[in-house]
Amino acid sequence: MSEELAMVTGASSGIGEAFARELVGRGFSVILVARRTDRLAALKAELGPTVDVLGADLATEEGIAVLSRRLQMGGVSLFVNNAGVGYRGRVADQPDSNITRLVRLNLEAPMRLSRAALGPMMARGRGILINVVSMGAFQPVPYLNVYAATKAGLLSFTEALADEVEGSGVRIQALCPGNIPTGFQEVAGTKGSRFDRTPSMSARDVARSSLDSALRGGGTLQLPAWTDRLSVFAQRFLPRFVARRVAGSLLKAD
Question: Is the CATH number of domain 5-251 3.40.50.150?
Answer without folding.
Answer: no
